[in-house]
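1st attempt posting a full record on here, be nice pls
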Amino acid sequence: MAIKIVCDSTCDIDKAWTEANGVIITPLKVMFGTEEYADGVTLSKEQYYAKLSDGKVLPTTSQVTPSEFSDIFSRILAAGDEVLSISLASALSGTYQSAVFAKNALGSDRIYLFDSHAATCSLALVVRIAVQLRDAGLPAAEILARLESLRPKVRLCICLDTLRFLKLGGRLPASSAFIGELLNIKPILTLDEGKVVIMEKKRSLPKAFEWMAAKIKATGLNPEYPVCFGHSNSPQGLAAMAGYLSDNGVALPDPLTVIIGAVISTHTGPGAVGLAYIEQ
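the predicted structure (as tokens):
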């Protein structure tokens, strides 16, 4: 009996990695006005950012439906395997609840569900750890228990390059955004129990990277686990952040890089860079 790991598209891991590691991806829907796309299927990251930069209105997303989960879970169960479904933070989407509905409808004890409280590179980190535990031969129930114990230690820091999208999303008044842009303010976002919050504001990205390195050193990064980088269409910005952290004594074990997708980039906009890790 194999364990099939299922995750939604907001983990932002590229198709080559998920296919190579046996992870099944369920796409959220992304809407630009009346146009609807399947995240990562009918809308690539490159197409997404082109549309994001052209428009004045933020895109919206819709959750994976219970019937979509039911179809996937049923195929896995029919093959005699177990399901480990890892979902985007329930505070950001109803996707986890859709998985709960599907499990209840199927009534199987071979379906294990995990609300990650994470998104983008922090969700990718959780998926990577689940894959490692599965490949080490742990049963699904124990993998779920390990993920639950690690959940409070998953950390995400995303440094923004622009305030425009916080303003468009209503998280920052227009007057504050205007002044912030004049002062070159770079907010640092995180997820707190799945909710997007601003941790800190610094004047310039180098100052944001300096704050981030100090925070990681103060609380500790567990080197037994990998890290995951994320960027919103800014590989050069990510290289600058990774270089700064590495040069300033922050260990970055076995990194994986993802491009931040539709759910989180509506808050960050292009140019953002981030890191997910497990705290000591």
